[in-house]
């Protein structure tokens, strides 16, 4: 493991923690989160393995009880029972996928990487949401219902965040190469 990559990994994990904690104090019915920007951007900046490691550090810190998640109870092992926990698992997969597709590539590869990362994020998140609603909470639900709850209200904002992640991630990579 390279020291520089580990340092950047810890910075991304810390940014994830800070971004999650900022949502504790933000008012609104549908919270705005910058977490997807950091998730997608981490794959571009760190590469697949280190980006996934940063997301795992964030996830483990939250599960150990640090108040880093964006919704109450903000941390602890009980967070696994929340229907939206799958999106936290999806963060790990999304960061990895972005890094694998990008691979220090071009702008096009960065765009394809973040789009593939969003697919991975939603695949994990929506699958977990369906499982929790249907089999754990015993709510009659359908795939279309889950899409209306967890996909439709958020996809436009997440596509905008993906664009920001590509722009910032590419800029960081470009400046790192120039230095």
Order of helices and strands: HHHHHHH
Structural class: mainly alpha
- Average pLDDT metric: 92
* Dominant shape: globular
Q: How many strands appear in the DSSP assignment? A: 0
Strand content: under 5%
Tally of helical runs: 7
Query: Unreliable stretches, pLDDT < 50, 5 or more residues?
Result: none
What separation lies between the terminal Cα atoms? 21 Å
Q: Level of helix content? A: over 70%
The description of the largest β-sheet is: none
Over all CA atoms, what is the radius of gyration? 16 Å
Record the SSE blueprint.
Blueprint: H1 3-22, H2 35-46, H3 48-63, H4 85-102, H5 107-136, H6 143-150, H7 155-178
What structural keywords apply?
mainly alpha, 72% helix, 179 residues
In short:
With 179 residues, the protein is mainly alpha-helical. The chain has helices spanning 3-22, 35-46, 48-63, 85-102, 107-136, 143-150, 155-178.
Could you walk me through the main structural features you see in this protein, from its secondary elements to its overall organization?
This protein has seven helices and no strands. It has helices at residues 3-22, 35-46, 48-63, 85-102, 107-136, 143-150, 155-178. It is globular, with a radius of gyration of 16 Å. The two termini are 21 Å apart. The model has no long low-confidence stretch (mean pLDDT 92).
């Amino acid at each position: 493991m390279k020291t520089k990559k580990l340092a950047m990994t810890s910075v991304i994990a810390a940014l994830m923690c800070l971004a999650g904690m900022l949502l504790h104090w933000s008012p609104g019915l549908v919270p705005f989160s910058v977490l997807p920007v950091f998730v997608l951007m981490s794959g571009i900046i760190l590469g697949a393995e280190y980006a996934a490691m940063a997301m795992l550090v964030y996830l483990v810190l939250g599960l150990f009880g640090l108040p880093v998640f964006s919704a109450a109870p903000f941390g602890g092992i009980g967070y696994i029972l929340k229907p939206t926990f799958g999106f936290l698992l999806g963060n790990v997969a999304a960061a990895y996928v972005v890094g694998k597709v990008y691979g220090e590539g071009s702008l096009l590869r960065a765009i394809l990487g973040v789009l593939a990362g969003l697919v991975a994020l939603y695949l994990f998140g929506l699958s977990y949401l369906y499982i929790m609603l249907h089999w754990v909470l015993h709510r009659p639900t359908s795939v279309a219902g889950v899409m209306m709850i967890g996909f439709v209200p958020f996809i436009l904002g997440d596509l905008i965040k993906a664009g920001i992640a590509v722009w910032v991630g590419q800029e960081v990579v470009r400046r790192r190469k120039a230095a």
